[in-house]
Amino acid sequence: MKIWIVHAFTDRVFTGNPAAVVPLERWLPDAVLQAIATENKLSETAFVVPTGLRGNYQLRWFTPTTEVPICGHATLAAGAMLLSELDPTLEVVVFDTHAGVLVVRDTPEGYTLDLPRKQRSPWTPPDDVALALGVDEIFDAFVGEYANVVLENEDAVVNLKPDIAALNTIIRGPRQGILVVSAPADEGKPYDFVQRFFAPGAGVDEDPVTGSAFADTAPYWCDRFDLESVVGSQASRRGGFIRAIQTLSSVRLLGQVAVYLRGELDPALARIHNRIEEHPEAPKRKKRRARKAKQLPAIFEDPMLPGLEGEDLNLPTSHPAPPETSAPPLPPRIVVTDAK
Fold first, then answer.
1. Residue 30 three-state SS
2. 219 in a structural domain
3. Helix (H) or strand (E) holding 48
4. Which among 246, 267, 293 is the end of a domain?
5. Among 226, 210, 219, 150, which residue's Cα sits nearest to residue 184?
6. Rounded CA gap, 19 and 260, in Å?
7. In angstroms, rounded to a whole number, what is the distance separating the alpha carbons of residues 325 and 82?
């Protein structure tokens, strides 16, 4: 049971979005999968199981609190590990997921990921959304895979300090407690738009770099700027960049990955089954036996002098000091023996 921690949508570690990739021979119980993801404490843990067809795998994603229907950066990370380390002879990996078939390819520029393109619908957010974000005005809003709002400029997105608990309550669909906020990039920037992704409904207050959110925002900004492809920046603390190209039915994301950790999980995890929520059992104690007092040997007994039983002997409680003497010590005695 191997595990990789991969930083996706970046070319160096400690940036991008971290995801754990755990390839399995067969599916473990859901309780075990969720426990592993909870212990990893990453925004996503991707589990992959081979289907029997070469280059084809089943894929599921878990946050520290729940399973999610789609995740872009963990899919890119899983595909990259399969293509680069588990089976380098492959050029394409096909994943069967709850979101449909997802394809990852290895290209000279990086790894590409095809995500489904959701139909974009207009949305009028309630006034509470702007209040929770701490902004005066929302310039546009729509619904795709997630609820999306558009602000005036890059600074408005970068400087957001939202009320996460309020967003978790206000945003009711299409995914409870999940909101994408984007805006056009400032002039002269090497990217076209900037975004942030808040997902308290999935147990992640703010995600570092979100591939599935770019599948919503990239087509919007392509249409708005009349471009075939755009480069987006996610303005999280870690940060990351994605180039996106929209097709008739999908959004193709191009990104790189950096491996942070290669390791192994204990094989015993495969035998835990559904006992995750049980409390650990205390070790069993042996019953104590009543022991008879041992009789001390005669050497430890306190003998009484004959005829003085019951009398106060005034025995010393410590060793007496040596007697004082003014006589000089005797010289050492030398004994001569026969050499024979």
1. helix
2. yes
3. strand 44-50
4. 246
5. 150
6. 10
7. 93
**Catalytic hit among 44, 264, 278, 309:** 44
**Regions of the chain where pLDDT drops below 70:** 273-340
CA-to-CA distance for 83 and 210, rounded, in angstroms? 21
Note down the domain range covering 42. 1-114+254-277
Is 44 among the catalytic positions? yes
Taking the C-alpha atoms of residue 144 and residue 123, their distance in angstroms, rounded to an integer, is: 10
List, for residues 78-130, the tens digit of each pLDDT value.
Answer: 999 999 999 999 999 999 999 999 999 999 999 999 998 889 999 999 999 99
Q: H or E element: which one contains 244?
A: strand 240-246
Token pair belonging to 164: 């996460």
Amino acid identity of 156?
A
Percent of the chain exceeding pLDDT 70 equals 80
Structure-block tokens of residue 145? 């895979």
Give the start-end residues of each E strand in 275-337.
Answer: none
Kindly calculate the radius of gyration of the chain based on its CA atoms and give it in whole angstroms: 36
Number of domains making up the chain = 2
Place of tokens 């003998």: 303
Residue 104 maps to a domain: yes
CA distance 95 to 100: 8
In whole angstroms, what is the distance from residue 44 CA to residue 8 CA? 11
Q: How far apart are CA 90 and CA 74, in angstroms?
A: 19
Helix, coil or strand: residue 261: strand
CATH number at residue 110: 3.10.310.10
Q: How far is CA 323 from the centre of its chain?
A: 77
